[in-house]
Each structure stands twice: as structure tokens, then as C-alpha cells.
Amino acid sequence: MPLLSRVFMALGAVLAALSVVLSAAAAHVPALQQGGAAFAASLDQHQFHALGLLLVGALLRDRASRWLAASGGLMLAGLLLFCLNIDARILWGWDAARALVPAGGSAFILAWLALAVGVLRPPR
Prior knowledge:
- By secondary structure, the chain is an all-alpha fold.
- 83% of the residues lie in helices and 0% in strands.
- It has one domain.
- The longest helix is centred in the middle third of the chain and has 27 residues, at 36-62.
């Protein structure tokens, strides 16, 4: 299996596990309970894009594609810029990079578009 495929699949699996930990913590950590809709949105995107990374990794296993690699990279960027940013604000009051949250959402959108192109383009 190609290295990039394994990396995206491993990161997707670890991030999916982390999303379960965060879901459980949300039931017990007051800061997360007070995060309300923002934390719920972050957690939804976290879970969804962890699965997206698993999909990208599986597709890269059989088909080398710059578009698919870009899709995985953009999903990771979205997870950092969107989810991590929101979580850090809720948990630690860190608000320095709040303006980057929309860039994370844009990265998610571009990731799915790159995935579409990657599966539609004929293999080389």
C-alpha cells in the first residue's frame, strides 16, 4: 500500500478515535458543555472528515492522484483551522486565530471538490 494512502488512513482512524473521546468528554467537561452549538459543529465536522480521510486513503491505495492527495491535505487543513480552532477557543479561551475558522470551512469544501475531480479523472 502506498505511503500516502497509509498516512491518510492512519490519521483518519486516529482522528475518528479522538472524535469519540471528545464526544464522551462533552458529556463530562463543563467547558465543552458550555461550548454548545460551536462545539457540536466542530465535533460533527471532525467526525465527518476523519471518515473522509479514510476514504481518501482507501482511494489512494489503488490509484495515485494529485487531486486525491490534495483532497486529503485539504481535509487535514480544515480539521486544524476549523475544528482545532473552535475546540481551543472553548477549552482554553484561545481566540488568537478565530479569523482562520472560515478558511477551515473553505478547505473542507475544496477537499470534497478535489475528491470529486480525483475520482472523475481517468488514471494515468
